[in-house]
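Good morning C.,

I know you're traveling, so I'll keep this short. The sequence:
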Amino acid sequence: MLAEIASTPVTTRPEPSRRFSVAPMMDWTDRHCRYFHRLLSQHALLYTEMVTTGALLHGDAQRFLRHDATEHPLALQLGGSVPAELAAAARLGEQAGYDEINLNVGCPSDRVQNNLIGACLMAYPERVADSVKAMRDAVAIPVTVKHRIGISGRDSYDALRDFVGQVADAGCRSFTVHARIAILEGLSPKQNREIPPLRYDVAAQLVQDFPELEFILNGGIKTLETCREQLEVFDGVMLGREAYQNPYLLAEVDAALYGSDRPPLTRHEVMLQLRPYVEAHLRQGGVIHHVTRHVLGLAQGFPGARRFRQLLSTDLHRSPEPLRLYDEATELLRGH
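The tokens, ready to paste straight into the viewer:
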């Protein structure tokens, strides 16, 4: 597999806009979630869950890389720290049609730390730089990095600036900055998304110090108004949990941030347009909950919202007619 990496190929695909993106989230941003999100926004850049190099090179690569053509623009996030393996995995991603390869240097979980994946790599900027160079030599699509502003024991701005500088010297032009440090001992991944304070000022200093690079802000953003404010400073914004838990926010993105005059779909229209995808998934032997678990946040704050969520979670598991319940839930959104 590694021997197949050749000289840099040529691509005519345009570089994706990173003005607004939905963060890669483990167990959340799978292909069903991304298909649903694309119905809401034509322009948002979508990311896969993190996929390790081992899963791609020694597992069922097709299962991990599978996606629908409508998901583009679409980025593949990789987890790994061996340059040759990352290069081989990046090549597989490019061949599968992805528009960008992103390296995870932000995940703080113990499991990935033990494999030298994620946020712990901020302590090894040379290794990250070598990995970026290897991937850039292997593919023609952009190679980007998502990272924290620091890690416990290495949280000074000088260390952050050195990290970005070394990785930029290897050819990375776009950095997505989760504006919290990662505490690698004693906190769960969930706690690491909440307890370390947000420091947008630190991320903004990178914009000042590296004006030639692209910086995307991630962490704690909940509204499109905040997105617009931060776009005065940063080149792009990335939403994670808010985009997942309140997905209808994405329906406003194209008009608010991209100037689109296309009317957004109503919640009811989204469910109607998603139905053929659900039917196809069932015909292929899939379970309807694989898709519907991602749409539960579509109903919030109006009569019938609670019943909508109940139908597509608790009731769905017990029903021999899941599509009938899907249609019943869809009707609850009529007019919304």
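Safe travels,
E.
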